[in-house]
Amino acid sequence: MSSSARSRGESVIQSKGKPIHYPFWFGGSASCCAAVVTHPLDLGRRSGISQVRLQTRTPDGPRGMLSTFVHILKSNGFLGLYGGLSASLLRQITYSTTRFGIYEELKSTFTTPTTTPSFPSLIAMASTSGFLGGIAGNPADVLNVRMQHDAALPPPQRRNYAHALDGLIRMTRDEGPRSLFRGVAPNSMRAVLMTASQLASYDGFKTLILARTPLSDNLYTHFGASFLAGFVATTICSPVDVIKTRIMSATEREGLGRLLGRVFRVEGVGWMFRGWVPSFVRLGPHTVVTFLFLEQHKRVWRVLHGEREESGLAV
What we know:
The chain is mainly alpha-helical. Helices cover about 70% and strands about 0% of the residues. It has 11 helices and no strands. Helix 6 packs across helix 7, helix 6 packs across helix 8 (about 185-210) and helix 8 (about 185-210) packs antiparallel against helix 9 (about 220-250). The longest helix is centred in the middle third of the chain and has 32 residues, at about 120-150.
């Protein structure tokens, strides 16, 4: 590493002799902002209604992302693109606040004025925070998938939750508290993969860009690192995402092993990346916007606390 790259890296990790500690809720706030911005692509969330419907659609249902958009617009109008927004925000408040908050707390704990955690350590921290975030966000995730998939069902089978709170109350009342944690195993597995491939890879790509290019810690660096992180996260999480979505949207309980056996038998290996394109169309921009908002949260925090603009580790 060149001396200029090393000096730029050192300016990032030191601030008045110690790393900067940011509020726990920054990640959840940034994720909520991103959810609002990207919701039409998400079409309700969980990699978008388009992805959920591609993963769960019947043979005579709309095929492809564009036809799904047209189907929703014809059936539900423009506001249909924002169906399930309350569930999406609830999920970000629970899932994203937990995983981002714990990850940043762990980074802060293991960061010194002269050293930062290694990339394998970041993966371990992200996996831990992702697992806990997956459990915390599971009720909102189940609700989110159901609200996304609802419009694709025949009218007699629709649940017609009015909003996130109504959905949680009705799920608990009609199906028992256990329904809130349906699919918690694959959901937590996905959360581990998502957080490790998204948060840790963002920090890794950002460090690499700062060290190997003339770019400084600015908008261009944040955009490049977050775009690459979104690509990695989409590819790694696709198979688990398909299975999790099918379990959560199912009307009857089916074991994971039985579901996998049936899917492999009927669809072969192609199911693993079904909906990858709409997933990346949703997750890519969502990842970029999340980290752009997060970096701006941190920038404003540094300014308000009198830190120099180029100083401060994002911990």
